[in-house]
Amino acid sequence: MSISGDWYNEIGSHMRITADPTGGVRGTYVSAAGHAVGTYPLVGRCEAATVPEHGTPLGWTVAWRNGRTDAESVTSWSGQYYDDGEERICATWLLTASAAAANTWEATAVGQDVFTREPPSREQAEKRLRHAGMSSHSRPVSVEEVTPM
After folding, report:
1. For residues 145 and 135, is the Cβ–Cβ distance under 8 A?
2. For 35-76, how does the pLDDT look when each residue is reduced to its tens digit (9 = 90+)?
3. pTM value?
4. Phi and psi at residue 33, in whole multiples of 5°?
5. Strand pairing partners for 77?
């Protein structure tokens, strides 16, 4: 299988990615949390796994600025794609927001996402938002505040 296609994390954020034969990754990201309204471009790289039981390493970045909003932040994910009967991307993210030099120490948050081909139910996403405390984009919001995909 290929990493190209639609992916959803535990809170319902949606990304659509295309991997090219040279390892380039491009696509779009719609966040289900935070101040990021609308669709954002993403760009990244992947490297084909040489050992069948190992995952495919990949990473991508989203700058949270589009024609509708500028959240003055960037998130980068780094992880692995697995296809062992259950396709998933397990990734760690770093969210860095604009900050004064004196506050640099608190400008970056870290967390993890698991992306699957199926979106979570509303109940699953709400539960994850309640327990996560922070998402890969700024202020977590309730599922009711998110525009349906």
Report:
1. no
2. 788 999 999 999 988 887 899 999 999 999 999 989 999 999
3. 0.85
4. -150, 160
5. 60, 93
Answer yes or no: are the C-beta atoms of 140 and 133 closer than 8 Å.
yes
- Output the pLDDT for position 148: 34
Query: What is the SS3 assignment for the chain?
Result: CCCCEEEECCCCCEEEEEECCCCEEEEEEECCCCCCCCCEEEEEEECCCCCCCCCEEEEEEEEEECCCCEEEEEEEEEEEEEECCCEEEEEEEEEEECCCHHHHHHCEEEEEEEEECCCCCHHHHHHHHHHHCCCCCCCCCCHHHCCCC
Is residue 136 predicted with pLDDT exceeding 50?
A: yes
